[in-house]
Write a structure and sequence with these properties.
Layout lengths: L7 E6 L4 H9 L4 H9 L1 E6 L6 H10 L3 H4 L5 E3 L6 E3 L10 H7 L4 E6 L10 E5 L11 E2 L1 H11 L15 H28 L4 E6 L1 H13 L8 H7 L2 H18 L6 E5 L3 E4 L3 E3 L1 H7 L10 H20 L2 H10 L1 H5 L1 H5 L12 E2 L9 E4 L15 H13 L14 E3 H4 L11 E3 L8 E2 L12 E3 L12 E4 L1 E7 L7 E2 L3 E2 L3 H8 L49 H14 L4
Parallel strand pairs: 1-8, 1-9, 2-20, 2-21, 5-6, 5-8, 11-16
Antiparallel strand pairs: 2-19, 3-4, 6-7, 9-19, 10-18, 11-17, 12-13, 13-15, 14-15
Helix pairs in contact: 7-10, 8-9, 8-10, 13-19
Length: about 575
């Protein structure tokens, strides 16, 4: 087996969480990750707010909070209205460490990291991740590498055919088999790229942990309100099996490396079981007098109900390919998805002060309908603070009848979380849905606006492809190599610290406008890096240049991305 010498290798395990990884390491299930932890430092890694894939991986790549790079979620508000448009890597407004490393003279290879579509034209290669519309898209740079990969591996598995239609155990079993095939293909590709296209700094990202934790958590957790004994007999170990499979991949990658390489294993956020408490945010705002609906036409209500029933049946029973076909055949149907599954399009903006875009499973957030900012904004700037306080009071007032305590433990104001030129793109309020007081959020319907804004879910098996696990703030970090201490636990590390730490290892000056810090506490300073002396300044003033050049999705590409996000559970 050939030995190659990348300087740094990063392995992204999307949504890997220490609450699962730690015990499995102790039990001997993950020997390769255990070896890296013994040889280096490890601990929890605090994500960004919200702890979602687009914001998190973009902050990892830039070392900046979303207020500086401009990406918060899979969608953002259209500038000319209240609708939403899909985002991708081209919406990023900050330079990546890949580009910085190139300018300092290093080659770079990146595989499957989310929010890298369209791929950067790097000196090296980049294979885009989750925001890639389809395997037919131009998601590989250089283009000739795509043909080389497909000649050897066939089309890369980007979407699951069964994930969005898991209405019975047989369909779930098919999805599990597809996860395995996808992991095997991406793992084989990673090793091929290491051997055939080695670069100075390389990153390989695997997404299956996030997917199985979202959809299979309730099978391994007997205390879960969705626990299914029959299903558990089949799927109790599905999540552990994915960790084991990717542990083997980690081992294969490390065995290809020289002892001088630095290895990082990183997740963008964690995961935990969802709560049995569901909140309807717009219903709360409506009952507080902050959100108004247009007058209800009884016939319209009947039609909406029937349409939603058809939409739910199609979502559960059609294959991925059939959904894509319908989306392409009836683009207007896709454009009106908000009207089908929520009452968002029925909001009377002329009488609404605050609202939530509820088609998204998370994060639950509130936006103030500010005058001269929103097209039909009615809240004067002088009344902004009063409106914020009224919304927060209404949200905090919702209590769990079983405990008498507020369902929402913490509401974050925009200025508490974000700083930078793009902070205004963020919601005014972001609700903390995980941790000490977890909850879920679902779309509010106009015809149900007088019902309780809190629903306690039934204790029953899950018969549709909904989440049983959701994101938490803390992911994982393992770092091993000549510059790191051995066998030590790390605390207080943040995702945004990775970019400056990687630049430091490469001897590249850390830009002053990065929010993260070099993880010096993880390093053995008695062992100076072989690479620091090779660095070259990037800019005269230490501030990186914003990247401009958005690539808006076409109607067809938007349909492909939307179908994937619905199947994954991010979109209702």
């Amino acid at each position: 087996m050939s030995v190659i010498k990348p300087r740094i290798v990063i392995i992204g395990l999307d949504a890997a969480v220490m609450s699962l990884l730690g015990p499995w390491v102790e039990q001997g299930d993950l020997p390769n990750l255990a070896a890296l932890m013994a040889q280096g430092v490890s601990g929890e890694l605090e994500s960004v707010m919200p702890p979602l894939t687009p914001a998190a991986w973009t902050s990892f790549m830039t070392g900046k909070n979303p207020g500086k790079h401009g990406i918060y979620n899979f969608m953002e508000h259209a500038p000319d209205g209240y609708g939403m448009i899909y985002t991708n890597g081209s919406n990023r407004r900050a330079e990546t460490i890949w580009s910085m490393a190139n300018r300092a003279g290093y080659t770079v290879g990146v595989m499957n990291t989310p929010f890298t579509y369209p791929p950067e034209k790097l000196n090296g290669f980049q294979i885009s991740g989750l925001d890639t519309p389809s395997s037919d898209s131009a998601f590989v740079h250089p283009p000739k590498l795509k043909k080389e990969i497909e000649d050897k591996f066939g089309p890369l598995i980007i979407d699951s055919r069964y994930l969005g239609s898991m209405t019975n155990l047989e369909k779930r079993a098919r999805a599990v088999e597809e996860f395995k095939r996808s992991d095997e293909q991406w793992s084989e590709l990673a090793l091929y790229l290491l051997e055939q296209h080695p670069k100075d700094i390389m990153m390989f990202t695997f997404m299956s942990i996030d997917t199985v934790e979202h959809h299979f958590w309730h099978y391994m957790d007997k205390n879960h309100f969705y626990y299914d004994q029959e299903g558990a007999a089949l799927f109790r170990n599905v999540i552990r099996d994915v960790y084991r499979r990717l542990d083997r991949t980690v081992g294969e990658i490390v065995r290809h490396l020289d002892s001088s390489a630095h290895v990082f294993v990183v997740s963008d956020h964690g995961q935990e079981a969802i709560s049995d408490r569901t909140l309807f945010i717009n219903r709360i705002l409506h009952q507080a007098g902050l959100l108004a609906y247009k007058p209800l036409n009884p016939f319209d209500g009947i039609l909406k109900g029937a349409t939603r029933s058809v939409h739910e049946w199609l979502s559960k029973n059609l294959t991925h390919g059939q959904k894509l076909f319908l989306s392409g055949l009836f683009p207007k149907l896709r454009d009106n998805a908000d009207a089908i599954v929520t009452s968002y399009t029925e909001i009377d903006w002329s009488r609404t002060q605050a609202f939530c875009h509820e088609a998204w499973a998370c994060p639950p957030s509130v936006i103030i309908n500010l005058k001269d900012v929103k097209p039909q904004g009615i809240v004067e700037k002088a009344d902004y603070e009063k409106t914020i306080q009224k919304a927060m009071e209404a949200l905090y007032a919702i209590q769990d009848p079983r405990t008498g305590k507020p369902v929402i433990a913490k509401i974050h104001r925009r200025e508490e979380l974000y700083q930078g030129d793009y902070a205004e793109r963020a919601p005014d309020l972001t609700l903390q849905w995980w941790g000490e007081s977890p909850f879920n959020a679902k779309p509010s319907l106009r015809e149900e606006s007088d019902l309780s804004p809190l629903r306690i879910e039934k204790l029953e098996p899950l018969c549709k492809p909904e989440w049983s696990g959701h994101h938490t703030l803390d992911g994982i970090l393992i770092a091993s190599g000549p510059c790191f201490k051995q066998g030590e636990k790390l605390s207080g590390a943040q995702l945004i610290d990775l970019a400056p730490t990687l630049l430091n290892l490469l001897g590249i000056p850390v830009p002053e406008d990065m929010d993260g810090k070099i993880l010096e506490e993880a390093m053995d300073l008695s062992k100076p890096s072989n690479y620091r002396k090779n660095g070259h300044p990037l800019t005269e003033n230490g501030v990186t240049t914003a990247v401009v050049g958005e690539h808006a999705y076409s109607v067809e590409e938007a349909a492909q991305v939307e179908t994937r996000l619905k199947n994954l559970g991010y979109l209702e």
